[in-house]
Protein backbone atom coordinates (compact mmCIF):
# COMPACT_ATOMS: atom_id res chain seq x y z
CA UNK A 1 0.00 0.00 0.00
CA UNK A 2 1.05 3.62 -0.53
CA UNK A 3 1.71 6.05 2.30
CA UNK A 4 -0.34 8.68 0.49
CA UNK A 5 -3.40 6.45 0.95
CA UNK A 6 -3.39 7.45 4.63
CA UNK A 7 -3.56 11.20 4.12
CA UNK A 8 -6.47 13.34 5.30
CA UNK A 9 -7.10 17.04 5.87
CA UNK A 10 -7.73 18.20 9.42
CA UNK A 11 -8.79 21.74 10.36
CA UNK A 12 -6.22 23.19 12.77
CA UNK A 13 -8.93 24.14 15.26
CA UNK A 14 -9.68 20.43 15.84
CA UNK A 15 -6.18 19.70 17.18
CA UNK A 16 -6.82 19.57 20.93
CA UNK A 17 -4.58 22.01 22.81
CA UNK A 18 -5.83 21.08 26.26
CA UNK A 19 -7.49 18.05 27.85
CA UNK A 20 -11.20 17.83 28.50
CA UNK A 21 -12.27 19.45 31.77
CA UNK A 22 -12.83 15.97 33.19
CA UNK A 23 -10.89 12.94 31.94
CA UNK A 24 -13.98 10.87 31.20
CA UNK A 25 -15.86 13.86 29.79
CA UNK A 26 -14.32 13.45 26.34
CA UNK A 27 -16.37 12.14 23.44
CA UNK A 28 -16.33 8.52 22.27
CA UNK A 29 -16.72 7.60 18.60
CA UNK A 30 -17.86 3.99 18.04
CA UNK A 31 -16.86 2.03 14.92
CA UNK A 32 -18.68 -1.28 14.45
CA UNK A 33 -16.65 -3.62 12.26
CA UNK A 34 -19.56 -5.98 11.72
CA UNK A 35 -21.66 -3.57 9.70
CA UNK A 36 -19.48 -0.48 9.30
CA UNK A 37 -21.80 1.55 11.50
CA UNK A 38 -20.84 4.57 13.61
CA UNK A 39 -22.18 5.88 16.90
CA UNK A 40 -21.49 8.96 19.03
CA UNK A 41 -21.19 8.71 22.82
CA UNK A 42 -19.33 10.12 25.83
CA UNK A 43 -16.32 8.34 27.27
CA UNK A 44 -17.98 7.78 30.63
CA UNK A 45 -20.33 5.44 28.72
CA UNK A 46 -17.39 3.22 27.70
CA UNK A 47 -18.19 0.52 30.33
CA UNK A 48 -21.51 -0.13 28.53
CA UNK A 49 -19.55 -1.56 25.60
CA UNK A 50 -17.72 -4.10 27.76
CA UNK A 51 -18.90 -7.63 28.52
CA UNK A 52 -18.74 -9.12 31.97
CA UNK A 53 -16.04 -11.61 30.99
CA UNK A 54 -13.85 -9.23 28.95
CA UNK A 55 -10.15 -8.74 29.63
CA UNK A 56 -9.16 -5.06 29.52
CA UNK A 57 -5.43 -4.52 28.98
CA UNK A 58 -3.78 -1.19 29.90
CA UNK A 59 -0.28 0.19 29.27
CA UNK A 60 1.13 1.32 32.63
CA UNK A 61 4.20 3.10 31.26
CA UNK A 62 4.81 6.45 32.95
CA UNK A 63 5.79 9.53 30.96
CA UNK A 64 9.10 10.95 32.11
CA UNK A 65 9.49 14.71 32.59
CA UNK A 66 12.06 14.20 29.86
CA UNK A 67 12.49 17.73 28.45
CA UNK A 68 15.47 19.57 29.94
CA UNK A 69 16.95 23.04 29.34
CA UNK A 70 20.64 23.84 29.32
CA UNK A 71 23.32 26.41 28.49
CA UNK A 72 26.76 26.19 26.92
CA UNK A 73 29.01 27.74 29.61
CA UNK A 74 31.47 29.09 27.02
CA UNK A 75 29.08 30.69 24.51
CA UNK A 76 25.88 31.17 26.50
CA UNK A 77 23.99 29.29 23.78
CA UNK A 78 20.71 27.69 24.86
CA UNK A 79 19.84 24.03 24.35
CA UNK A 80 16.71 21.94 24.63
CA UNK A 81 17.32 18.30 25.55
CA UNK A 82 14.78 15.51 25.18
CA UNK A 83 15.81 12.28 26.86
CA UNK A 84 15.10 9.25 24.67
CA UNK A 85 16.63 6.17 26.26
CA UNK A 86 18.93 5.34 29.15
CA UNK A 87 21.97 3.24 28.21
CA UNK A 88 23.33 3.00 31.74
CA UNK A 89 23.57 5.18 34.83
CA UNK A 90 23.84 8.85 33.69
CA UNK A 91 24.36 7.78 30.07
CA UNK A 92 21.47 8.65 27.71
CA UNK A 93 20.57 8.98 24.06
CA UNK A 94 18.81 12.30 23.55
CA UNK A 95 17.37 14.60 20.94
CA UNK A 96 19.23 17.87 21.30
CA UNK A 97 18.33 21.22 19.72
CA UNK A 98 20.08 22.95 18.09
CA UNK A 99 22.02 19.82 17.25
CA UNK A 100 24.56 21.57 15.02
CA UNK A 101 25.99 23.34 18.08
CA UNK A 102 26.39 20.12 20.07
CA UNK A 103 29.75 18.70 19.06
CA UNK A 104 31.43 15.80 20.80
CA UNK A 105 33.13 17.09 23.93
CA UNK A 106 30.81 20.09 24.39
CA UNK A 107 29.44 20.64 27.87
CA UNK A 108 25.93 21.84 28.75
CA UNK A 109 24.95 23.13 32.19
CA UNK A 110 21.41 22.12 33.04
CA UNK A 111 18.92 24.66 34.35
CA UNK A 112 15.82 24.52 36.50
CA UNK A 113 12.37 25.31 35.09
CA UNK A 114 12.65 28.78 36.69
CA UNK A 115 15.87 29.45 34.76
CA UNK A 116 18.43 29.06 37.55
CA UNK A 117 21.55 27.06 36.79
CA UNK A 118 22.32 23.76 38.54
CA UNK A 119 25.53 21.85 39.16
CA UNK A 120 24.50 19.16 36.69
CA UNK A 121 26.62 19.09 33.53
CA UNK A 122 25.91 17.06 30.39
CA UNK A 123 28.81 16.19 28.09
CA UNK A 124 28.26 15.18 24.46
CA UNK A 125 30.00 11.82 23.95
CA UNK A 126 28.62 10.55 20.65
CA UNK A 127 26.12 10.74 17.81
CA UNK A 128 24.16 8.23 15.75
CA UNK A 129 22.78 7.97 12.23
CA UNK A 130 19.42 9.37 13.33
CA UNK A 131 21.02 12.62 14.44
CA UNK A 132 20.62 11.91 18.16
CA UNK A 133 23.33 12.77 20.69
CA UNK A 134 24.72 10.67 23.50
CA UNK A 135 25.12 12.54 26.78
CA UNK A 136 27.02 11.70 29.95
CA UNK A 137 25.66 13.48 33.03
CA UNK A 138 27.86 14.64 35.90
CA UNK A 139 27.16 16.51 39.10
CA UNK A 140 24.38 14.12 40.10
CA UNK A 141 24.34 10.54 41.31
CA UNK A 142 21.51 9.72 38.90
CA UNK A 143 19.87 12.18 36.51
CA UNK A 144 16.76 9.98 36.37
CA UNK A 145 16.10 10.62 40.08
CA UNK A 146 15.99 14.41 39.72
CA UNK A 147 13.88 14.65 36.57
CA UNK A 148 10.81 15.57 38.61
CA UNK A 149 12.79 18.58 39.84
CA UNK A 150 14.48 19.64 36.58
CA UNK A 151 12.41 18.21 33.76
CA UNK A 152 9.30 19.29 31.89
CA UNK A 153 6.46 17.22 30.44
CA UNK A 154 7.45 16.37 26.84
CA UNK A 155 4.33 17.54 25.05
CA UNK A 156 4.13 16.69 21.32
CA UNK A 157 4.95 19.48 18.85
CA UNK A 158 1.33 20.10 17.84
CA UNK A 159 0.42 21.24 21.38
CA UNK A 160 1.45 24.88 21.78
CA UNK A 161 2.25 26.52 25.10
CA UNK A 162 3.31 30.12 25.85
CA UNK A 163 7.09 30.12 26.06
CA UNK A 164 6.99 26.51 24.76
CA UNK A 165 6.90 25.22 28.34
CA UNK A 166 4.38 22.68 29.62
CA UNK A 167 2.13 23.70 32.50
CA UNK A 168 1.45 22.16 35.90
CA UNK A 169 -1.82 20.85 34.49
CA UNK A 170 0.12 19.06 31.73
CA UNK A 171 2.28 17.33 34.36
CA UNK A 172 -0.88 15.70 35.73
CA UNK A 173 -3.05 15.29 32.65
CA UNK A 174 -0.43 14.06 30.15
CA UNK A 175 -0.21 10.94 32.33
CA UNK A 176 -2.63 8.09 32.91
CA UNK A 177 -4.03 7.63 36.42
CA UNK A 178 -2.58 4.10 36.48
CA UNK A 179 0.95 4.93 35.24
CA UNK A 180 3.59 2.97 37.18
CA UNK A 181 6.78 2.27 35.24
CA UNK A 182 9.04 5.15 34.14
CA UNK A 183 10.15 5.12 30.53
CA UNK A 184 7.90 6.88 27.99
CA UNK A 185 8.58 10.20 26.30
CA UNK A 186 5.04 10.31 24.92
CA UNK A 187 1.81 9.33 26.63
CA UNK A 188 -0.18 6.19 25.73
CA UNK A 189 -3.03 8.58 25.01
CA UNK A 190 -6.01 6.20 24.87
CA UNK A 191 -5.58 5.73 28.60
CA UNK A 192 -5.76 9.44 29.42
CA UNK A 193 -9.58 9.26 29.45
CA UNK A 194 -9.81 6.89 32.42
CA UNK A 195 -10.48 7.94 35.99
CA UNK A 196 -9.93 5.70 39.00
CA UNK A 197 -13.67 5.70 39.59
CA UNK A 198 -14.38 4.58 36.03
CA UNK A 199 -11.85 1.75 36.31
CA UNK A 200 -13.51 0.63 39.54
CA UNK A 201 -16.89 0.70 37.80
CA UNK A 202 -15.44 -1.47 35.03
CA UNK A 203 -14.12 -4.01 37.55
CA UNK A 204 -17.49 -4.08 39.29
CA UNK A 205 -19.05 -5.18 35.99
CA UNK A 206 -16.93 -8.35 36.13
CA UNK A 207 -14.27 -7.18 33.67
CA UNK A 208 -10.72 -8.30 34.43
CA UNK A 209 -8.20 -5.46 34.22
CA UNK A 210 -4.48 -6.07 33.79
CA UNK A 211 -1.42 -4.17 32.57
CA UNK A 212 1.52 -4.46 30.21
CA UNK A 213 4.35 -1.96 29.80
CA UNK A 214 5.44 -0.48 26.48
CA UNK A 215 7.59 2.63 26.64
CA UNK A 216 6.38 5.04 23.98
CA UNK A 217 9.08 6.76 21.94
CA UNK A 218 9.15 9.80 19.69
CA UNK A 219 8.65 7.60 16.66
CA UNK A 220 4.98 7.37 17.57
CA UNK A 221 4.50 10.90 16.16
CA UNK A 222 6.71 10.49 13.10
CA UNK A 223 4.98 10.30 9.71
CA UNK A 224 5.94 7.53 7.33
CA UNK A 225 8.22 9.15 4.75
CA UNK A 226 8.67 6.27 2.30
CA UNK A 227 6.40 6.14 -0.75
CA UNK A 228 5.37 2.55 -0.03
CA UNK A 229 4.65 1.06 3.40
CA UNK A 230 6.85 -1.95 2.70
CA UNK A 231 9.93 0.30 2.67
CA UNK A 232 9.29 1.92 6.06
CA UNK A 233 11.63 1.04 8.92
CA UNK A 234 9.60 0.96 12.12
CA UNK A 235 10.90 2.62 15.30
CA UNK A 236 11.82 0.29 18.15
CA UNK A 237 10.12 0.33 21.54
CA UNK A 238 10.85 -1.53 24.79
CA UNK A 239 8.21 -3.65 26.51
CA UNK A 240 7.56 -5.90 29.47
CA UNK A 241 4.81 -8.45 30.11
CA UNK A 242 4.33 -9.84 33.61
CA UNK A 243 3.35 -13.45 34.30
CA UNK A 244 -0.12 -12.46 35.56
CA UNK A 245 -1.01 -10.64 32.37
CA UNK A 246 0.44 -13.38 30.15
CA UNK A 247 -1.71 -15.97 31.92
CA UNK A 248 -4.80 -13.76 31.80
CA UNK A 249 -4.52 -13.13 28.05
CA UNK A 250 -3.82 -16.77 27.22
CA UNK A 251 -6.76 -17.91 29.35
CA UNK A 252 -9.08 -15.35 27.73
CA UNK A 253 -8.14 -16.53 24.24
CA UNK A 254 -8.49 -20.18 25.23
CA UNK A 255 -11.99 -19.63 26.62
CA UNK A 256 -13.30 -17.40 23.82
CA UNK A 257 -13.39 -14.19 25.88
CA UNK A 258 -12.59 -10.82 24.34
CA UNK A 259 -9.26 -9.08 24.82
CA UNK A 260 -9.84 -5.31 24.75
CA UNK A 261 -6.67 -3.29 24.15
CA UNK A 262 -6.48 0.23 25.52
CA UNK A 263 -4.35 1.93 22.92
CA UNK A 264 -2.30 1.07 19.88
CA UNK A 265 0.68 0.50 22.17
CA UNK A 266 -1.08 -2.41 23.88
CA UNK A 267 -2.25 -3.82 20.57
CA UNK A 268 1.23 -3.64 19.08
CA UNK A 269 2.83 -5.25 22.12
CA UNK A 270 0.36 -8.16 22.35
CA UNK A 271 0.48 -8.90 18.63
CA UNK A 272 4.30 -8.67 18.66
CA UNK A 273 4.70 -11.15 21.52
CA UNK A 274 2.12 -13.53 20.04
CA UNK A 275 3.83 -13.44 16.64
CA UNK A 276 7.11 -14.47 18.29
CA UNK A 277 5.59 -17.29 20.35
CA UNK A 278 3.19 -19.23 18.11
CA UNK A 279 0.19 -17.17 19.12
CA UNK A 280 0.76 -17.27 22.88
CA UNK A 281 1.68 -14.46 25.24
CA UNK A 282 4.88 -15.17 27.15
CA UNK A 283 6.06 -13.17 30.16
CA UNK A 284 9.33 -11.28 29.80
CA UNK A 285 11.00 -8.18 28.40
CA UNK A 286 11.94 -7.31 24.86
CA UNK A 287 11.82 -4.82 22.01
CA UNK A 288 9.50 -4.60 19.07
CA UNK A 289 9.71 -3.10 15.59
CA UNK A 290 6.45 -4.65 14.43
CA UNK A 291 4.77 -2.46 11.81
CA UNK A 292 1.04 -3.21 11.68
CA UNK A 293 -0.81 -2.03 8.59
CA UNK A 294 -3.49 -3.39 6.23
CA UNK A 295 -4.05 -6.20 5.38
CA UNK A 296 -2.61 -7.67 8.59
CA UNK A 297 -4.78 -10.02 10.67
CA UNK A 298 -4.92 -9.88 14.48
CA UNK A 299 -4.44 -12.96 16.64
CA UNK A 300 -4.98 -11.54 20.13
CA UNK A 301 -6.85 -8.23 20.23
CA UNK A 302 -10.64 -8.34 19.76
CA UNK A 303 -11.57 -4.71 20.47
CA UNK A 304 -9.47 -1.56 20.41
CA UNK A 305 -9.81 1.74 22.24
CA UNK A 306 -7.71 4.49 20.69
CA UNK A 307 -7.51 8.21 19.96
CA UNK A 308 -7.60 10.00 16.59
CA UNK A 309 -4.17 9.89 14.95
CA UNK A 310 -1.99 11.97 12.66
CA UNK A 311 -2.10 11.63 8.86
CA UNK A 312 0.46 9.19 7.43
CA UNK A 313 1.31 7.91 10.93
CA UNK A 314 1.96 4.27 11.77
CA UNK A 315 -0.81 4.53 14.38
CA UNK A 316 -3.38 5.47 11.73
CA UNK A 317 -2.20 2.48 9.71
CA UNK A 318 -2.56 0.16 12.70
CA UNK A 319 -6.15 1.19 13.41
CA UNK A 320 -6.92 0.87 9.70
CA UNK A 321 -5.70 -2.71 9.81
CA UNK A 322 -7.80 -3.40 12.89
CA UNK A 323 -10.95 -1.95 11.31
CA UNK A 324 -10.94 -4.84 8.83
CA UNK A 325 -8.37 -7.50 9.78
CA UNK A 326 -6.82 -9.41 6.92
CA UNK A 327 -8.21 -6.98 4.33
CA UNK A 328 -7.25 -3.63 2.82
CA UNK A 329 -10.65 -1.98 3.13
CA UNK A 330 -10.04 -0.95 6.74
CA UNK A 331 -8.39 2.19 5.41
CA UNK A 332 -11.67 3.28 3.83
CA UNK A 333 -13.57 2.46 7.04
CA UNK A 334 -11.26 4.58 9.21
CA UNK A 335 -10.99 7.50 6.79
CA UNK A 336 -14.79 7.56 6.56
CA UNK A 337 -14.97 7.54 10.36
CA UNK A 338 -12.44 10.38 10.53
CA UNK A 339 -14.43 12.38 7.99
CA UNK A 340 -17.57 12.00 10.09
CA UNK A 341 -15.68 12.87 13.27
CA UNK A 342 -14.29 16.01 11.66
CA UNK A 343 -17.75 17.02 10.54
CA UNK A 344 -19.05 16.48 14.07
CA UNK A 345 -16.25 18.55 15.63
CA UNK A 346 -14.36 15.81 17.45
CA UNK A 347 -11.02 16.83 18.97
CA UNK A 348 -7.95 15.10 17.55
CA UNK A 349 -4.59 13.75 18.74
CA UNK A 350 -3.13 13.38 22.26
CA UNK A 351 -5.56 15.53 24.25
CA UNK A 352 -8.45 14.76 21.92
CA UNK A 353 -11.44 12.43 21.94
CA UNK A 354 -11.51 8.63 21.83
CA UNK A 355 -12.56 5.96 19.34
CA UNK A 356 -13.68 2.43 20.14
CA UNK A 357 -13.47 -0.18 17.37
CA UNK A 358 -15.54 -3.28 18.15
Key phrases:
28% strand; Thrombin, subunit H; QueA-like; alpha/beta; 2 domains; nine-stranded mixed sheet; six-stranded antiparallel barrel; 358 residues
Describe what is shown at a glance.
This protein has 358 residues and is an alpha/beta fold.
Description:
The protein has 358 residues and is α/β, with parallel strands linked by helices. The chain has 2 domains: 3-63 and 171-357, QueA-like; 67-151, Beta Barrel (Thrombin, subunit H). The protein is 19% helix and 28% strand. It contains 7 helices and 17 strands. A 9-stranded mixed β-sheet has the order 2-1-17-16-14-3-12-13-15. A hairpin with a 5-residue loop joins strand 8 (107-111) and strand 9 (117-127). Helix 6 (314-323) crosses helix 7. The longest helix is centred in the C-terminal third of the chain and has 14 residues, at 330-343. The radius of gyration is 21 Å and the shape is globular. The mean pLDDT is 95.
What order do the strands of the largest sheet run in, or round the barrel if closed?
A: 2-1-17-16-14-3-12-13-15
The tally of helices reads 7
- Secondary structural class: alpha/beta
Radius of gyration: 21 Å
User: What is the CATH class name of the largest domain?
Assistant: Alpha Beta
Strand content: 25-35%
CATH overall fold name of the largest domain: QueA-like
What oligomeric state is this? single chain
Q: Estimate percent helicity.
A: 10-25%
Total strand segments: 17
Q: Which regions contain 5 or more consecutive residues with pLDDT less than 50?
A: none
Span between termini: 24 Å
Q: What do we call the CATH homologous superfamily of the largest domain?
A: QueA-like
What is the residue-averaged pLDDT? 95
CATH-derived architecture of the largest domain: 3-Layer(aba) Sandwich
Strand-and-helix sequence, N→C? EEEEEEEEEEHHEHEEHEHEEHHE
Instruction: Sum up the overall morphology in one term.
Output: globular
Instruction: Characterize the main sheet.
Output: 9 strands, mixed
Structural domains: how many: 2
Amino acid sequence: MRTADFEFLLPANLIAQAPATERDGSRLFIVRRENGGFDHRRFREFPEFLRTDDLLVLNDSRVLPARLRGTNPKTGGKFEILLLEENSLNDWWVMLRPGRRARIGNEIILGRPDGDHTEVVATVTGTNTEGHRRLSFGGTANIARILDELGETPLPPYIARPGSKATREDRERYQTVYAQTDGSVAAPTAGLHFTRALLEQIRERGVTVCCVTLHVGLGTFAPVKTENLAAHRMHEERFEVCARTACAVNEAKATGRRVVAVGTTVARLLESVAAQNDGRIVAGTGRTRLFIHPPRAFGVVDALLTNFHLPRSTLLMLVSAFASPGQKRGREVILAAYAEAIGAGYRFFSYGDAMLIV
